[in-house]
Amino acid sequence: MSRDDIPPYLNISPDRAAELLGPPADTPGFAAVAEACRRGRQDLASRGLDETGARRLRLFSTWEITRYLIPVAPAHFRRVLRQNPDLPQGQSESEGGAKWFTLDEVLRLRAHFGAEGSKAKNYLPYRPKGLPAKIVAVANFKGGVGKTSTCAHLAMSAALDGYRVLVIDLDSQGSMTSIFGGQIEDEWQTVFPLLARHYATTLRADNQRRLDRGEPPLPFDDTLTEALKLKAPDLIRKTHWPNIDLIGAQLNLYWSEFQIPVWRMQSRGWRLWDALTDVLAEDGVLDAYDLVFLDTPPALGYLTINGLAAADILLVPFGASFLEFDSTGRFFDMLHATFASIEEGENIAARALGREELHFEWDAVRAVMTRFDAGQQAEMAGLIQAHMGQVLSPHRQDFTALIGQAGEQVNGIYEADYRDFNRETYARGRATFDATYAAFKTLLYGIWRREETARTAAAE
Question: Which positions fall inside the AAA domain (predicted)?
Fold first, then answer.
């Protein structure tokens, strides 16, 4: 056996190991590593920027539009453009070359076909009138399960489908914010002031009752005073997607996890789990958008509880392995313990006062299998499906070469130019995310139809 064949855990020299070790680490060393990562992150992110330093969404070709976005034959698509010169005509990179369109132009074309095209086809996405936006939370307390990636690609899919989308990043790591090019300076540009405003409103009412009883009010600090001045539209930012807006996150948002329990101790009547739902409804967000996607932290803290309580639809991504299945089961167990505890605590008082009891409810909860390898995980996936039943979405999100390549280029799958890939690789990689969205869209349509039917029945 040669020296190269010796297993790495044998014959290691302590002296050589000491030479390779380097000096001890200290607290300033963390700052140096963070700064190195910041520079690297800026370098990588800058590769997706235009000459002004802003993110810019790529163009979409006639082939891509007619195959994926608008259900018309290419020849008919080109004929409609010739007959309607006022419609976007696209741009060619060479004389007689393929036409390319911005997503704004694609949305205008979709609207035209929706108004003038065949009545047998659905050019526009289904959305019942008079119903608020659906809030979708993507959550799991295990990291690395594809949570942020799944949330981002569902938001992009919905945007390509023609929906108005708001993405709210509740994770102080800010990965979703980076995907959409957000530059967030501090916690006052995150959801923090919205949560603070909700608490401030409760505290102000509590203090008035204290004054009426002749008791001194609780302190009302500058943070709460400033929060009362802000509304959700003040925090919403445009992204490089014309129909995706963002409330971003950054590291200081994590401070909420320490501040919220302090507020809760000061005002036991504050329904913190209603904070996000109430402010989004009060500020008109649920009327301005069709879908609101919440990317939650990989922990069941106060921000995650707010997101889960606000959600109409809960999606839980995880991989097809024993450890991830086991962890996801524990996540559901913790969800039960957390929300059952909230219900129990609130309903003791509700029953004593003769008020309506609190009962959390979601339109649908689905686990989504991500990074699936059919060659190695089919048996495990089948076993998991047998145990989880309908809760596990029947579609399994495959891991393909396109996913890895798109990540290296700092792009989502739908932001990647298919000309940068083998056409077959692109189609296969896109297909798994298209199928993930199709499963979600089926869920969404079923929920909206159920509500629409119930509303019609109630009106009769």
Answer: 133-323
CA dihedral for 349, 352, 353, 359, sign (positive or negative)? positive
Q: Residue for token digits 């799958």?
A: 413
**In sequence order, what are the residues at sequence separation of 6 or more whose Cβ sits closer than 8 angstroms to the Cβ of residue 102?**
57, 59, 60, 88, 242
Tokens 């990989």 correspond to 298
Reference 260, options 232, 314, 223, 206; nearest CA is 223
CA dihedral sign, ordered 222, 223, 225, 229? positive
| Location of structure tokens 């390898």 | 373
Q: Which residues pair with 244 in a beta bridge?
A: 165
Tally of CA atoms within 13 A in the half-sphere of 227 that contains its CB:
22
Nearest alpha carbon to residue 238 among 164, 171, 297: 164
- Cβ pair 103, 65 in contact under 8 A: no
Helix (H), strand (E) at residue 225: helix 222-227
- One-letter amino acid for residue 446 of the chain: G
pLDDT tens, residue by residue, 372-426: 777 788 888 888 888 888 888 888 887 765 554 444 444 678 888 888 777 777 7
- DSSP code per residue over 265-304: HH-TT--GGGHHHHHHHHTTHHHH-SEEEEEPPSS-SHHH
Q: The whole model's pTM is what?
A: 0.88
Q: Is 49 helix (H, G, I), strand (E, B) or coil?
A: strand
pLDDT tens-digit series, residues 290-330: 999 999 998 889 999 999 999 999 998 988 888 888 888 88
122: which DSSP letter?
A: -
DSSP states along 143-183: TTSSHHHHHHHHHHHHHHTT--EEEEE--TT-HHHHHTT--
